[in-house]
Amino acid sequence: MSFPPVQKLSPSITSAASAIWALLLTSSPGTAQYFDALSNGMTAVVEINGFPCFESPSLESGTTSLFLGSTLQNGENTITWNTLTSQDSITNELPAWTNLEIFAAPADLQRTYDNLGQRLFSKRINANRNTVLAPVTPGKVRFLKGTLSKDGELSFQKISERSWALGLSLHDPELHFLGLPSKLNYARISDTLAHLKVHFIDSQKNRQLVFGDLKLIRGGGTLILNAEQAIRGRQHYETGTFDQVWLFGTSSEGVKEMNLGLLDIDSYQIKSSGKETFQAEIEHRWSWQDGANMKDLLEDPSQRQILISYLREVHLCLDQEAPDQWPPYFANKLADLVKSMAKPLELLAEEQMTFFQNLHQTDGWGLEPFDEERLLFRPLNEKVLAVSYVDGPGPLRSKPIRKNESTPLERFTIPLFLSNIDGKWTIVR
Prior knowledge:
The chain is about 15% helix and about 40% strand. By secondary structure, the chain is an alpha+beta fold. It has helices at about 10-25, 85-90, 295-300, 300-320, 330-340, 345-360; strands at about 30-40, 40-50, 50-55, 60-65, 75-85, 95-105, 120-125, 130-135, 140-145, 145-150, 155, 155-160, 165-170, 180-190, 195-200, 205-215, 220-225, 230, 245-250, 260-270, 270-280, 375-380, 385-390, 415-420, 425. The strands form 5 sheets. Strands 9, 12, 13, 15, 16, 18 and 19 form a 7-stranded antiparallel sheet that branches. About 30% of the residues are buried. Strand 10 and strand 11 (about 155) form a beta hairpin.
């Protein structure tokens, strides 16, 4: 296989890198930020300010403790997540959850379970949900049919002889059913409601999921809700997002009123997504924050070709040049690492060079051929672009190599996060 002639680094890249390095001084210990995630019985994908931070390896579980480095910015930050509950958890009614936390701690602190640092953000996402409809929480539930009795109980409304109805609109989005309703738990019902039907309604998409042939016995109990009992809308059983609950039932003759003191519903959240903001005090400004608007750049065909040429240049350097030619391409990345880790530039630069040399000296070292057609560009936020191949990491992706005789062949990859700073593309993460 032949390669293009070796190209030397352009003076502009070399001088820019030298300027960055010259400005960096030895840091004193500062504050670092960490992201801890743990999932059980579900997958979770998490991003912070657009940067990928966690993707659980399987539907069963996943865990990470990540040094965030230049991920957070001073002031407001955004975290987003998407989860998917495993079928095994749903079928066997097993607990399924994901826990997300972000901490700030001294950069030189050895974090332990008892000393994780100052908590900046905490979120627990439970697939198992229990939605309390009674006692009624003011502002969260609105009556569509029926009223709240003077004793604080749900009062059904009589709609015809022996027929009663109770309709509740779940005004608070936190109460919406984002998955499978599985059990209806109730207590303190004043009389018996035979031939009960429960309607879950998605008012936005006009969908209904209806369970019939149920019966509320006097006193209290639990009703099982499963797909086999659904008499209408079964296609929405696993995918609905319901914001209304209706109960229709028939009583015996002579019943004057029908009240219910306690009502809650167990459900399984198959899929969930969320987005929240949190505050952080970050003492540094990162290189990516000075990047140009990524949307404008990607809409410019000429910039796209400049970007591809830059990626080809980096690829060629790591594939054919000696390791002492590699560092200028990673100067911004190293500069931010020095700030975030509060370690001397000289120390990290030395560690970086040792790493590069070990890679280069690995038997069979070399990169896979550059493939422009497989490039995939994904803006992470307004300033940062993630670059990969359609089928996985790239284009800085090695041929199969073996670290030593006892290890299997594997491919080494360098993730690429780029910004365009002062009109030039550069690696920032």
